[in-house]
Amino acid sequence: MYVLQNDLLQVKIKSIGAELSSVTSKKNTIEFMWQADSNIWGSHAPNLFPIIGSLKDDSYIYNNNTYPMTKHGFVRKNEDFIVKNSCETNITFQLNSNDVLYKMYPFLFEFEISYTLINNTLTINHKVKNTDTKTLYFSVGGHPAFNCPLYKDEKYTDYSLEFENSETSESYLLNMETGLVSNKTKTVFINENEIKLHGDLFNEDALIFKDLKSRKVILKHKSKGPIISVNFKDFPFLGIWAKQNAPYICIEPWLGIADSETTDKKIENKEGIVALNVNEIFNASYSIEIDKRHLV
């Protein structure tokens, strides 16, 4: 476990998967991150690479060969990360392609994830370098889960998600059996900017948005106001999810999406996939800002 800290916050990150596992107030010890109760959902904030969500048949096709790949890719539980550099408020983890990974992902790459703590904001940056002699195809994203409710005297229904812009948007529904994106949608916003949280919100699995104007969403209490803001300027897709009636909420910036039911399985045709040329470097970051009223 690695620790970042300043006068306001202490942040803990696991070496396995370079996974953010704790964000606590230094003064009042409030924990903002979900603590991975394995009886409910045993993760905190897994990092997603080189795919997001599920693939059809848990595999994809590249150059007429079929390769296995489980949901969300191979980074989230990977034990091969090394620490490239670190100081009290910043740490960078690196994972390079290797023989084991090459069997499921036939590309040479360098993947880095950096955590930077400044004041009351933690920024998570993803860096991908193509070290191969061919185009590198990938998706990348985050899956942070936040405690909700935050205080003992609260209910889940006291909370809502507030978006920075009014939206008119639909959620793309997953096939509950396969985890693939179906051709069905449901309307979530009609010129509004708030989703009220309740126990049945995720009866049809995650809310998946492809066309939001907003690049900031706030977890907000009905009387205490903003708790956490997630800024996702580099990510065109957003997932919102929790297990039914579970005391947390995931706000997931994605650059990519699960396979559609009609996919041809070719990775280069996958929706949201990034095509990175030889020797090019790609960066995408999102940030988690804790409202200072909850740090005193």
Examine the secondary-structure arrangement and name the CATH architecture. Answer: Distorted Sandwich
Assembly type: single chain
CATH class: Mainly Beta
Low-confidence segments, given as residue ranges, are: none
H/E series = EEEEEEEEHEEEEEEEEEEEEEE
Strand order of the largest sheet: 7-8-9-10-22-18-17-14-15
From the spread of the alpha carbons, the general shape counts as: globular
Intertermini distance: 25 Å
Helical content (DSSP H or I, runs of 4+): under 10%
Domain unit count: 1
Number of helices: 1
Task: Tell me what the structure shows.
- With 296 residues, the protein is an all-beta fold.
- The chain contains 1 helix and 22 strands.
- The chain has a single domain, classed as Distorted Sandwich (Beta-galactosidase, Chain A, domain 5), CATH 2.70.98.10.
- The strands form 5 sheets. It has a 9-stranded antiparallel sheet with strand order 7-8-9-10-22-18-17-14-15, with no helix packed on it. Strands 4, 12, 13, 16, 19 and 20 form a 6-stranded antiparallel sheet that branches.
- A hairpin with a 6-residue loop joins strand 19 (237-241) and strand 20.
- The mean pLDDT is 97.
Write a brief structural summary.
With 296 residues, the protein is mainly beta. It is built from 1 helix and 22 strands. A hairpin with a 6-residue loop joins β2 and β3.
